[in-house]
Amino acid sequence: DTAVSQTPKYLVTQMGNDKSIKCEQNLGHDTMYWYKQDSKKFLKIMFSYNNKELIINETVPNRFSPKSPDKAHLNLHINSLELGDSAVYFCASSPFGTGGPNEQFFGPGTRLTVL
Amino acid sequence: AQSVTQLGSHVSVSEGALVLLRCNYSSSVPPYLFWYVQYPNQGLQLLLKYTSAATLVKGINGFEAEFKKSETSFHLTKPSAHMSDAAEYFCAVSDQGYSTLTFGKGTMLLVSP
Question: What share of chain B in percent tops pLDDT 70?
Answer without folding.
Answer: 96
